[in-house]
Structures are given as structure tokens and as C-alpha cells.
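Reviewers asked in the last cycle whether our approach scales beyond single polypeptides. To address this, we selected a multi-component target totalling 860 residues and predicted its structure end to end. The input consisted of the following lines:
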Amino acid sequence: MAELVGNLLVAQSGGPTSVINASVAGVITEAGKHECIEEIYGGLNGILGILNEDLIDLNDEKDRAIKGMVYTPAAALGTCRYKIDFKKKPEPAAQDMDRLFEVFKAHNIRFFFYAGGNDSQDTSHKIHEEAVKRGYDLRVIGVPKTIDNDLPHTDSCPGYGSAIKYCAVTAMEVGIDVGSMATDDGSCCIIEVMGRSAGWIAAGTVLAKRGEPANPPHLILLPEIQYNVDAILAKVKETVAAYKYCIMVVGEGIRDDKGEEIGVDKTRLDAFGHPVLSGAAECIAEFIQGKLNTKTRTVKLGYAQRAAAHFASAIDAKNAFACGEAAVKAAAEGKSGFMVKIVREYVPDEKGGQTVKWSTGLQPLADIANVEHFVPRDWVSEDGFLPNEKFVEYARPLIEGEVKPVMEGGLPKYSVLEKSRVEKTLPARA
Amino acid sequence: MAELVGNLLVAQSGGPTSVINASVAGVITEAGKHECIEEIYGGLNGILGILNEDLIDLNDEKDRAIKGMVYTPAAALGTCRYKIDFKKKPEPAAQDMDRLFEVFKAHNIRFFFYAGGNDSQDTSHKIHEEAVKRGYDLRVIGVPKTIDNDLPHTDSCPGYGSAIKYCAVTAMEVGIDVGSMATDDGSCCIIEVMGRSAGWIAAGTVLAKRGEPANPPHLILLPEIQYNVDAILAKVKETVAAYKYCIMVVGEGIRDDKGEEIGVDKTRLDAFGHPVLSGAAECIAEFIQGKLNTKTRTVKLGYAQRAAAHFASAIDAKNAFACGEAAVKAAAEGKSGFMVKIVREYVPDEKGGQTVKWSTGLQPLADIANVEHFVPRDWVSEDGFLPNEKFVEYARPLIEGEVKPVMEGGLPKYSVLEKSRVEKTLPARA
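The resulting structure, written as C-alpha cells, was:
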């Protein structure tokens, strides 16, 4: 096969993470090592920007800015929730696909990397298939990203380790605070974290316990498990009786024993048609105050948990960077239609124990798209209220080490790209 | 005057902060240098524990644990919201005061330090006056503490710098995240921070802007100022039109132009009889979504903002420690009835600019008790939506430097006291 030579395009999609820019930095850094890659372009705001021919020249960025991306949260290229939806909207989807390949041809894009979660891997898969169908020589590699950690086949998703490191330190700190105020009256605090259907983030806060039952959080509720509200209240009562306080972490999408989401407002829908959830913690707090008469406060971390790069995991950032590098290597080797996955291997350490050796692998995009990976039931206690040792063994290595952002005047100095625009050559999108 | 010799008692009160333990570490460290101080005791859970004769021997703690208190959040000695309230409950208050002096006498307490906010300084003041009245030789010094920063006469309150450093980094990170997702539809995020009547914490997030109008947060609403809801909506609309997104920070106690608290639930009261506020952000979010049709999400930091020692301000921790030291020095010099205050002085630096030199002073407790210090009106823009340069000049030095907690397995290893109990000698409290 004659070597493919052309330009590279990288874009980001969906909700950002603390380390999604590290993956882009990995792509840019590795791309510079391959002669088959000529220009390195970024697509602004994901697929949406590419459709609008909004491309920037990443070779024009300062080296300092690219290096700073490793510890800069959010999507430095901009992101979107736009989806090319062949199922629900076949006609606009077909038009989008035509336009996409016009843009690819106009700018001789031959290497395309898309960092995102389930929906974005689905998009990458469709683009790969279209390229084959159209006979357009294109290498498409998906780069995993999501704090939700719900992509299958990869050990974990870049962004997840940082999210749980931040959520765990928050549960730890809020726990010490509430514990230090606990008098005989007892008090409770509920921390609501993201996780619409998978409970990986909520489960990750178990690391704050360090194996001590008395340490917070005392109860962790996952969307995968259905809970009887009276059983929740009984657990809270038991915990307050034992420790005078109770810290509970809930995933936003937790459900009651009828399968109904707790505290959901079904009248509001997001861009993908999911109901907007915001009330799980508030809803349970009302029950505890009303039925147990125990003072209860809530914390809702919201977007902070996916953007808290000031306390990101060094391992997570390293794996995110490695995923970007591996994507480019695979494409340069002629591969297409894969997602990079993170691979964990346990190897003996110097102290006679074992340590984790991280590497990457490739998985066909066809295996990934729209498959959700959940917390295994046997990684959670029988009563469903706490992840167990199996989960801890899995999650602990993901939060190791601290990213060190450059600080200025007491706050991180995050990287900002100059975004030098690539000249448009096509008529505006219809 | 013959030198007073006896035992020291230190206790913590009210809502904890990230650095209140640094003040206790300052007390303990300085106490070791004075021969007039024999035993160093800690009172568990503030006044409430002292009334129950729950004292611990701080000389029994490991040196490592005391040193670790500098970066350990929450109240290591435990705290309470219990108030000796002569106004509302004169009889129980008089009984409490009798009991307190019984405990003092039983353990030869001659040096008493109470770290807390307005209510606690009031308690310290009353104890000082009672000691004089009763002819019991006691040195009482208040140590300032509160993330609310609402104590008068002190430049700032230990705990405040760390709270705004954390809230500012959160506003910065959430802002970059939301900004990176902003498409033509626009979106908004409202971050709710503590501050029932004083807006110091909300105001402090202005530091995330670094002087750039385009940087988040774009709007900051303070409880000191009344806001017309339509004017808020107009500002949001204007901001989204300019930047495609809007980050708003609100103090929990913000009020509308009728003086009504926005989103307050008057049916719930806390231990001091204040209404429980939890809804300011949610309430405004509903308005924005309903009237502007702009996607709006909320973040409620809650207890996390006063406990986030993983990102505490080094200057704040240093000042907190210095307040503890200064309290002991003052008492050893024979002073009583004062609160330590933080003093700021601008001195020329090497680069021809100026730098802040921090020291401490003393203020009579009579001047402090129950006086609330608010954000000056002329430190906020005329329209009330952003703190101005005067505020920034004040707040910027308070967030400088980072506390470095010892890390273990990716999370801070906070200090835990062994709490070796001092033997009780009195009958149990009635």
C-alpha cells in the first residue's frame, strides 16, 4: 500500500473533561514525528465547526500553549453536542455527511481524530464507514473521553480518574467538616455527582474512605441499582446513630424501587432528548429532614467535577496524552476505524507487591458505538450502598499523582489557543 | 502584677474553615514557648464540650499531627453552634456561665482561646467580662475565623482567603468548560456560594477574571445589594449575546428589589433561627430558562467551599497560624478581652512595585461582638453586578500561594488527633 500523505484534523466532542486537551496535545506532539502528516488542523466546536469549515492551524500555536494543554480543562478547540443522526434524521444526516467529505477534500484531510464519548465514537464509526464507501482514503481513529467512564473495552476513560479524584477529595473534605460539627443531634450531607445511567463517578468517591468504615462517604447510591426510599432512610438513621453524621454520595440518575428516577424533572430535555436531572440530592434531603428530622445539606458539584484541573490526576492526564499519541501512531501505520483503548497490566514492583503498567490498544469502533459500560453488580456490596474491594482495586490506581498547573497570582494559568483560522475555500454551509 | 501561671484551653466554634486548625496549631506551638503556660488542653466541640468537661491533652498529640493541622480542614477539636444566649435565654445562660467557670477552676484554666466568628467573639467577650466580675484571673483572647469575612476591624478573616481561592478556581474552571461548549444557542451556569448577609465570598470570585471583562464570572450578585429580577435577566441576555455564555456567581442570601431573599425557604430554620437558604441559584436558573429560553445549569458548592484544603491559600494558612501565635503572646503578656486582628501594610518590593506585609494586632472584643462587616458599596460597580478594582486590590493578596498537604494514594493525608481525654473531676452537667 502506497503511503497516505495529507493533513490531520483533530476535534473534540461532548462534555469536556479535565484532561481532554491532554489527548489533543498527544495528537499534536505525535503528529510532528510523522512525515506523512503535513498540516495539523483543529476543528472548532467538534463536528459542528467542521461542517462550517471552521478549522484552525495548530502548527501556528506557541509551543508553550500546546504543553499547557496537558493541565488545561475544558475543550481548547471548543466542543458541541451536535450529532449526525441517521436514525432519527436521515436526510439532514446524509447532507451533513456530504458536507463533511467536501470539507475533508477541500483541505486534504487524510487523518481524522475525534475525542469523545459514546456518541462521538458512533460519529467516528460512521465517518470511517462513509470514507470506505466513498473510496476516500481517510484514517479515522477515535480517542476515548468521558468522565462517565461508560465506554466499553477500554480499562477506563481519560477524564474519569481526574473526576473521581476531585469528587473523592470533596467527599473527604466535606466529610471531615460535617463530622467535626456533629453533635448528638446528628447531621447529614448529600453530595450529588454526575452519572445519568452509569454510577462510576459516585462509586469513585469510595476511595475517600481509605478502607475505614467510619470514614466518609458512608453511603454511595448508583444509578445502576434500584433503591427503596425507606431502606435509604434506615441506612441514614443507622449511620447517624453510629457516627453522629452521615455523608451520602448520589449519582444524579439514581432510581427508586419502581425504577423511577429520584428527583427528575421530566418537563426539561437536553439536546439529546434525555430528561434533565438535578434533584436527586435535594429530593432525598427533603425525605431525611421530613421523616428523620435530621439536619441535611446538599452539595451539587455540577460542571465543576469535569473541569477541576487544579486537582487532576497525573495518571489520568498521562493516559489521556498517550491515547492521543497512540491514535496518530495507529493512523500513520495505516489503521482506520478503531478507538484507542487504555490497557492495564499488573506487574511486580520493587517492594514485592504489584504496580500497574499502563499502555494502549485498539478496538474496532463497531464494538464501541452506543454500548454503555456499567459498574459490575459484584463490585458493589450486596445491599447496594457501597462499592466493595473489587471496585477499590480498580479505581485506586486511576487517581494517582497530581497534575501541576503553572500558577499565577494564586490561580492556575491555563492555556489559551490563539486559533489562527485556516482560510475557508467552500461556500457557506446550506 | 504577679505572673499568672496555669493551664491553657483552646476551642473552636461555628462553621469550620480550611485553616481554622492552623490557628490552633499556632496556639499550641506558641504555648510551648511560655513557662507561664503549664498544660495545653483542647475543648471538644467548642463551648458545648467544655460545659460537658470534654477536654483533651494536646501535649499528648504527636508532633506530626500538630504540624499537619496547618493543612487539615474542618475543626480538629470539633465544633458547635451552641450559644450562651443571655438575651433570649437568660436563665440557662447564667447556669452555663457558672458551669463554665467550675470547669475552668477544676482544671486551673487561666488562658482561654476561642476561634470563631461573630457569635464566638461575643461568647469570648462575655466570658472575659464574667471573669472580671467573678474576680477569676483568666486571660481570654478571641481568634478570628470565618470564611464569611464579616468580622469588623480585622483586615480579613482566616478562612476567607482559602474559600475565595477555591471558589475563584471553580468559577474559572466551570467558566472555561461552559465557554468551550458555547454554540449560538448560548448557555448559562450559576454558581451558588455561601454568604447569608455579606457577599465577600461571591465577590472574591471576581479574581478569576484577571481583569478581563470577557473572562468568567460575568455577573456576581451580592446579598448587600438589591436586584431587580428583570435587570438580572437583561444582563444575562447581554452577556450571552456578547460571549455566547454567561457565568454568574450568587451569594446564597441575595435579595430582590423588594428586599425579599431570592429562593429562600422560610419554613426551615437553623440553630440560630435564621431561615435556611438553598435556592438562589435554582430560582434564577428557572427564570433564565423560562424567560430567556437559555440552557442553565447550577453548581452549589455548599460545605465544600469551607473545607477545600486541597486548594487552600498559603497566605491564609500563614495568617491563621499567626493569629493563634499572637493570641498566646498577648495572653502571656497579661492581656485579656481582645480579639487578634490581621493587619495589612503595603511596602515597596524589589521590582519598584509594592507588596503586602502581614502582621497582627489586637482589638477589644467589645468592638467586635455581633458587628457585621459588609462589602463596601464603592467596591462594587455602580450597577451592582461586579466588584471593581478596589475590591480586587483588597482580595488578590489573600489567595497567594498554595498549601501543600501530604499526599497518599492520590488524596491528601489530613491530620487526625488522638484526643487523649483529660480526666473529668466534676459531676456531670445538669
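The CA atoms of residues 73 and 241 of chain B lie 41 Å apart. We regard this as preliminary and will revisit it once experimental data from Aim 1 are available.
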